[in-house]
Amino acid sequence: MISLKFLYSITKLLPVAIIPVAVYHAFERSRTVRRKQADLKSKSFTETYWSFTHVTFAAYHIAMQIATERLILRPWKHCDHAEAESLFRYASDPEIGIRCGWMPHRSIEESMNTLDNVFTGDENYAVTLRGADSPIGAIELKKAESGDHAGEFVREAVDAHSLFEGVDAGRLERALAHYDGDRVLGYWIGRPFWGQGMMTEALQAMLRHAFVDLGCNAVWGGHYVENPASGKVMEHCGMQAVCRKDGDYFPLIDQRHDAILRVITKEEWETCRDKTGNPKPAR
After folding, report:
1. In angstroms, rounded to a whole number, what is the distance separating the alpha carbons of residues 124 and 233?
2. Over the stretch 246-283, which tens digit does the pLDDT of each residue have?
């Protein structure tokens, strides 16, 4: 039986497969790798080698962190009780979840379940303070798909000629043509950190990541009409309000809210940045 240690050593022979050992060991502790290791026992050498290198590449992707002046955006730690406790501390606040379309967490166990079964997207990050690893919020760039809310509502507004005044319908048509594969934004931060510009800082970094690293054509987002603070965050990052959807239904909280849809394209992001590299506020 070929050992995993030996297989990892031979990946170094491939120029594109030189992955830090620390990354591998961090990923090996996850349930995913444990399942992969179990599968390897029944595979041939060739199957084993390629399965292992696939997992190693996945470890490299998952280990990515995004640093800003005050924050580190990092992957969530699954099956981690301390992580769940920190998440529960802020996600149990009724002022947080309802504003984002989900119910406040009622127990640490529920937060643990969220870590393991909800915060699993390829671009879902814990928001942490530099020098303090505990999560204080979350931010995600979810893959856009035909028929989801953001794209569907904007399409309806374009077809009904009900876009906000000054919005270029042709620009939105071009953005919608590449909607699949773009990203839809979601974020929240704990109440003690409101009003300090931290979410704006995180979003600026994520937009750069979306356009430079992920190759997105546009990033979409939305917020309740009665939550203008969230809209200000997007506005400060260059995301333009394009239309309003009244009575949007949020099934996790069984409520309807009027919502504002926003978007920024890669071209806009590139042209509207100021000298610091950050987007100027949308008009």
Report:
1. 18
2. 888 888 878 888 899 999 999 999 987 754 456 655 55
User: pTM for the full model?
Assistant: 0.74
Domains and CATH numbers, the chain: 71-272 (3.40.630.30)
Cα–Cα distance measured from residue 207 to residue 211, given in angstroms and rounded to the nearest whole number: 6
